[in-house]
Design brief:
Length: 469
Amino acid sequence: MHTNAQSFTADVFVTAKDTQSRLSPAGSVASAPPRAAQAIIFLDDAKTFQTIVGIGGAITDASAEVFAKLPPNRQQELLTAYFDKDAGIGYSLIRTNIHSCDFSSSSYTYVKDNDAALKSFDIAPDLKLRIPMIKHAAAAAKKEMTVYASPWSPPAWMKTNGNMLQGGSLKPEFANAWAEYFVRFIQEYEKQGVPIFGITVQNEPAAVQRWESCIYSGQQERDFVKDHLGPALVRAGLLDPDNLNAPTSRKIMVWDHNRDIMYDRARAVLDDPEAAKYVWGVGFHWYVGDHFENVRLVQERFPQTHLMFTEGCVESFDRARLSDWGAGERYGRSLMHDLRNGAVGWTDWNILLDERGGPNHVGNFCFAPVHAHTQPGRQLGELTFMNSFYYLGHFSKFIRPGAKRITASSSSDELLCTAFINPDGAIAVVVMNQSEKPIELNFQLGAEGAGLTSPAHSILTAIVKKRAG
């Protein structure tokens, strides 16, 4: 319903540089006739856009290994901070790895060598630490959790280079076995009480990495989905090509790599109706430039597909940069643009790493929003929260699964903004100020506005609630 005549209140939460404010309540403001201000955020809920699946991060082997080293009170602190939507930031989306990735302590698979029939398939490695942590997270989130999974490489014997690392490609004769591997992964995780929302075909299919990696061209990915993965999931009763949005239909996401060429790679698969009928969405990362417009271009060209940010982190770990304010602003900027351009979900990389930015079996150390001290001594288990944790929280805590984006239009080049109407009817408006100065602004909804200040280098969320009458 259009809102020209309605008044509203807004509860405000702020995180700001050079202050103690970290997702801190900053009072409530009531609407009134609009007043003059340096900037205006125009809100319009007459039309809604994409529906949010969730916002969260990845539980990798590395995250689970670090979590297991923490004393129980610190484990609970972390779970509450990330997954409790009242006391924490309410993560509702989890990505995990199908067997090993770089953020594992070693390379491993679920089958013995040359077992194309998958008779030896066993997820025992994941039962030790990773699945228990995922289940703890789901409990802390009160079951409001969506889990999806990605492979970094098929087993070495299925690949042209005979190695899980250093790229290589899937051998055509093992395409069916690899597709069935996905089926078994989903089935075995669900036997353990971890429902799998969906899978991506391949993490970063255009990069030869020194860690687990596998190369697909756009045509190879299209044909694997069309001829092997899609049919295998259908045969197992895990995917309904006539209703990809059904809760019981597991979702296939293609690409799962950077925004730079995502349009061409999406088109390579989705222009083929026989492949597209199995594909729910397109995943993307942030590691090569911003290229935010390419997210919008995919959404415009393929309006029925779903866009999911599947991985991003601040790379090249250095303890001296743990307090770098730019880390959070990078997250905020990406979340703003990706959501405004149609993303239905947004997934950070590792949710937890140790004081070295690992563990990682190839030394590819990086940052996480939370780092834990894992060496014995007085500091064992001490958690360091980067400002990226709070920037993420301004979205994940207040933009809930089922929320629908509405229009938020900023009059200022210095203020980024987005807005969503939640299932409870409240509107979450997120505003980010990357400038060196505070900015006076008005939220304007219909004929009324509410004034407040956006501090320098800050992010704020206003929960707008219409008043009855």
